[in-house]
Amino acid sequence: MNKKNNVSIKDVAKASGVSITTVSRIINNTGRFSKVTQKKVIQTINDLGYEQNKLAVSLRSNKSNTVGIMVPDITNEFYSAIVKKCEQLLFSNGYSSIICNTERSSEREAAYSQVLMEHRVDGLIIISSAIDDSKVIKTTTIPTVYIDRDPHSHNELIVSSDHYTGGEIATKFILNHHLNPFLIMTKTKTSSTMERVRAFKDVLKEHQITDIESRIFSLDLTSDKFLETVPSLDNYLQRIVSVKKPAGIFGINDNVAYMIIRAAQRLNINVPKTISVIGFDGNSFSEISAPKITTIVQNTTKLAQESCRLLLQQMTTQDKDVSPAIIKVPVQLVIKESTVH
After folding, report:
1. Pairing with 329, which of 86, 162, 196, 316 sits 20 to 30 Å away (CA)?
2. Are 311 and 123 in contact, with CB atoms under 8 Å apart?
């Protein structure tokens, strides 16, 4: 017979020779009790194999020591790196994580929001998505931190890479090497993506380049489909190289940059002599690609650390009405083989 499923707090009190109230105080570390009594009760708990009902404890204390993490695509290396680091940091601070893969769907995100509320999570981390927040159940009643996403609400806590500066660095690198500038993006219009696009446009305007929109090509797929062959991308690359001037292509992320290089190789377009390719993220594809991809590297460790710091601070403060905060984490250009030097 498994004692753990049958031992009650009443049994512990009887075996210890103290009241149920005293046992409860010692278990929850509230009220007054002597060190001697505490030691005796804890020994009895260990001997009998008593375990608290965690749901009952969370209902009494209104605290579950659980955090929900919503991620748009768990297979995406950038997102999964952040999730893993957040989970580790939260665990080291006594919190378990419920990880929800929303597949960039507003319906799934709304459903998961409801599930997390029912599980009485103490806080939420919501990672980048293009979803309109008005379609999602509002979670402002619990501490929430957004990573790479601006919910356009009140008192939001946002931690984000400096996407605009990263976009500037990538575009200026292309122009400083006297390359014909282009940008290729996916159909996903997250706030982080659009900041990179805005930087690309602004830098081109500064250089008196007027045909900006024709230099931006949007693939009709998301980054997770980067191994697919896309005829429209092949056609676009052929048009770019027909101009004769060496091109510099800013892939909106490393997956897209990898996709561009694979397409160029199929079309016998030399990288980096005919086209230089620069990505954004710093994921493993930038290293295993041949040639290795020049990229703007995001600091996933810092993103996770700052997000968890803000969330833990908010979950442990008595005043839940915290001041809004937007933390920008610096990015870094790492030059490899896919661009001219």
Report:
1. 316
2. yes
- HEC profile of 137-158: CCCCCCCEEEECCCCCCCCCEE
**Which letter does DSSP use for residue 216 in this model?**
E
Q: How far apart are CA 137 and CA 89, in angstroms?
A: 27
Q: How far apart are CA 159 and CA 146, in angstroms?
A: 6
Token pair for residue 136?
């999602």
Do 85 and 159 touch, CB atoms closer than 8 A?
no
The contacts of residue 305 (CB under 8 Å, 6+ apart) are 85, 89
**What pLDDT score was predicted for residue 3?**
46
Q: What percent of the chain has pLDDT over 70?
A: 87
Q: Which residues of 170-179 are buried (b: 16+ CB within 10 A; e: fewer)?
A: bbbbbbeeeb
Give the model confidence (pLDDT) of 9-18 as tens digits. 788 888 888 8
The residue among 233, 268, 269, 238 whose CA lies nearest residue 251 is 233
Residues 21, 10: Cα–Cα separation, whole Å? 10
Give the C-alpha distances (Å, rounded to integers) separating 36 from 10, 255, 293: 19, 62, 65
Percentage of the residues of the chain whose pLDDT score is greater than 90: 55
Instruction: State the amino acid at position 194 in one-letter form.
Output: M
- Residue 200 DSSP class: H
Closest residue by Cα to residue 155 from 328, 320, 316? 320
> Of 136, 116, 135, whose CA–CA distance to 124 is shortest?
116
- In the chain, % helix, strand, coil (3-state, to 5) comes to 45, 15, 35
In angstroms, the CA 170 to CA 178 distance is 13
